[in-house]
Amino acid sequence: MAGNDAASGAGYQDEYWVGAYYLAALFAEAFAEGDIGKVTRVEYQRGPLGDVVVYGDSASGQATLDLQVKRRLQVSAKRGDFPKVVRQMWKTVKDQGFKQGIDKYGLVVMRGSKPLKRLGKLAKRAAACTASGPFWTAIDDLNQGEKDVLKAVMDVSESIDSSNVKDVAWRILGSGMVVLEMDPANAESPHRAYLRSWVDSRVHSPRRTEAIVNTIYEFSSQCDKNRGSVDLAGLERKLLSSGHFLTPSLSAPMVVALESMAPVRSEELAPAILGEEPDRFDMDLRHLTSDNVLTDPDEAVRYIADENSLLRSAVNTQKDRKLILCGRSHIPLAALVGYLVGDRGDVRVLDWHPNAEDQCWNWPENDLCAYPHLIRTETGQRGTMAVRFSLSFWVGEDSSASGLPSTIERTVGILDQVVHLSHPELEHCGTLRARSVRSQLQARAYADEFRNVLDSAVSLTSKIDVFYAGPLSVAFEMGRRVASTMHPPTTVWNYEAGKYTWGICLNPRNGQGVGLPKAVFAPDYKKG
User: Fold this and answer.
1) What beta strand segments (E) does 323-482 contain?
2) Secondary structure of the chain: what % helix, strand, coil (to 5)?
3) Backbone angles phi, psi at 524, to 5 degrees
4) Containing domain of residue 88, as a range?
5) Which of 34, 100, 431, 443 has its CB 3.0 to 4.6 Å from that of 473, i.e. a possible disulfide?
6) What are the contacts of 241-247 at 24+ separation with CB within 8 A?
7) What is the Cα–Cα distance from 303 to 44, expressed in whole angstroms?
8) Which 8-state DSSP code applies to residue 302?
């Protein structure tokens, strides 16, 4: 149980929420914190550390993650729970059933600290050494804070085996220790968001998701008190017996809402989908943003596009279901979602219209209304290539001595060819304050013209960099037009604070062919 370093009431709730976090991962058959593969079972009060023991299906076979949960923990060999925790770690490592290199053990801490971060760093460093000697010969590289943490571990190790202190300390640190900082008890925390998204990946309904999350938490508290052991079948039986439906209604459309800059509110969305009662799949990435700046593009791309991502699961297991794509997000993320949705048939896109009198998601015109065709201009013939795509703003208005937009040159270097697709009204004013795209048909048509550019470039370039300014609806549709194998690697860039800082390559190449989408960065990019 959570000990002296945590207030008892809060400590118990922390254990329940950490257990609920792993139960939700079990429910979705997902990967969770701890690096032991897909979660297959969760147990309570079982191991030496033992608050929560998680089983996973790793590449090397069944793995276990033995965790003690603390609200906070002081790293000290003389005070608090730290000495007891270190001894329990040693007991875990010495257990004859412990699988070196596969099983993990350690801490979940709600309130992290610099010493705990240093402890995690030391654990990774020790794990990288195949023997005790190389670890100790390199300790001069440690800073003073890291040396203080190491001394605390050594002091406890001396109380375990005074004749073999260094080997014991190295084995405690390097045999699979993890130090996880998470607070799923906080409703606004990233890990609570993951918990909700895992549940939502099964039921695709915000109302049902919240109800199931509450039941999972209550079930977790019961299991903690009863030393429970739960696999997927047992969890599903519990949820079904509590009156929950665990599958979505496949006849209802599914709204895919991408939220990295602002939420997509159901009450605002409702007028645009009258007559339909859709389920929702929310990709809420706002915990990765600060003042609308995405602080960790790598993590955002992994969340959306990994082979086992919730979006892939939702899209690939329900291929006949109607999708409605919408969002208030960064352009490259929308293109990525569109790319993963692909060319499946029944897909609608919606746009948020903040300048409308009553801010709404409704298209101002229907698909029978005429729309202006894009202007296409080209310079150069063969080699490195950029596509400037200007709908709401003029992309690359500033020019360098070479005649190319300097903001683009700073990102990808000198280009051999540039194709510019632009809204005709931008030729006169540079910025469109009115809606540049006024119907779903227009969004699709503009994306088709983008596809024509990609098709014509297949034999002319080895990669394509896209610089787009316009509604998110066209960004979704752009991504859907990128063919993974036919088109060269295509990167959609993000513009902020006067420059292009990061982008997403939708279809990168690797030694085996087309790889997973990945974040790419400008030379002057600074993380966070």
Assistant:
1) 323-328, 347-349, 375-379, 385-390, 417-422, 464-469
2) 40, 20, 40
3) -100, 15
4) 8-181
5) 443
6) 242/215, 244/203, 244/208, 244/211, 244/212, 244/215, 245/203, 245/208, 246/202, 246/203, 247/202, 247/203
7) 28
8) H
Which ranges of the chain have pLDDT less than 70? 1-11, 247-251, 275-277, 355-358, 397-406, 427-434, 528
Q: Compute the distance between CA of residue 425 and CA of residue 400 in angstroms, rounded to an integer.
A: 24
- Rounded to whole angstroms, the Cα distance separating 282 from 327 reads 9
Domain assignment present for 176: yes
Q: Are strands 38-44 and 229-231 parallel, antiparallel or unpaired?
A: antiparallel
Contact at 8 Å (CB) between 491 and 505? yes
**pLDDT value, residue 403:** 46
Termini Cα distance of the chain = 36
> Cβ(53)–Cβ(43) under 8 Å?
yes
Matching residue, tokens 């203080």: 148
Q: Which of 181, 212, 247 is the last residue of a domain?
A: 181
- Among 130, 160, 181, which residue terminates a domain? 181
Taking Cα atoms as reference points, which of 263, 70, 77 lies closest to residue 160? 77
Cα–Cα distance, 53 to 51 (Å, whole number): 7
Q: Which two tokens stand for residue 123?
A: 């654990």
Q: Which tokens hold the place of 483?
A: 């063919």
Token code pair at residue 122? 């030391």
Total domains in the chain come to 2
Contact between 79 and 93 (Cβ < 8 Å): no
- Tell me the CA distances in angstroms from 278 to 210, 252, 281, one per residue in order: 16, 5, 10
Print the SS3 string covering 148-174.
HHHHHHHHHHHHHCCCCHHHHHHHHHH
Which residue blocks in 342-390 are alpha helix, DSSP H? none
Q: Which DSSP symbol is given to 372?
A: P
Instruction: Tally the C-alpha atoms within 13 A of residue 9's C-alpha that lie toward its C-beta.
Output: 0
Distance, in Å, from the CA atom of 89 to the CA atom of 94, rounded to the nearest integer, reads 9
Q: Give which of 353, 314, 304, 319 is closest to 473, Cα–Cα.
A: 353
Q: Is residue 295 part of a domain?
A: no
Q: Look at residues 140, 150, 141 and name the one whose alpha carbon lies nearest to residue 118.
A: 150
